[in-house]
Design brief:
The protein is of the alpha/beta class and 162 residues long. The protein has a single domain, classed as NADH:ubiquinone oxidoreductase Nqo5 subunit (Beta Polymerase, domain 2, 2-Layer Sandwich), CATH 3.30.460.80. The protein contains four helices and seven strands, in the order H-E-E-H-E-E-E-E-H-E-H. It has a five-stranded mixed beta sheet. Strands 6-7 form a two-stranded parallel sheet. Helix 3 links the parallel strand 6 and strand 7. The longest helix is centred in the middle third of the chain and has 12 residues. It is globular, with a radius of gyration of 19 Å. The chain starts with a helix and ends in a 16-residue tail after the last helix.
Amino acid sequence: MKAELSAVLGPDVVMGDAFGVVTADVPGSRWVQVATALRDTPSTAMVFFDWLSAYDDSPAGYAVVARVYSPEHRAAIVLRTIAAKEAPAVDSLTGVWPGANWSERETWEMFGIDFTGHPNLVPLLLPEGFVGHPLRKEFGLVARAAKPWPGAKDPAATESRS
């Protein structure tokens, strides 16, 4: 399946394998184009959107990750792209897979990544008036500022329990 995917996606998409799952590192400018090709090409037929999220890949930016699946070929692929640290934005996949709607809303809210073209980027999880993006590395944990962390910073410093 990796050869078919590579042929469909083009030379600027870096194919890989992580934990037995095929991965594709996609340039941000081709995010929607690659997703559409995966969905519409009969040899891939990635018609099922599974999930989308992100992680703080400092200092490179924020890695946006999506997993899609082909029931016909019983194959999956994980797509990855990088959103810049300053004013992070990625094109929305809701036009390709409508199921991306809530995942993009959650990722927008938790990381502050704008999904350009998303039909309804409104808060989904956090309380009204919440300020900040809690899954960014620079987001301070208020509980840690209010009281000291009860655990040891070095696991070797803890007493072993028998």
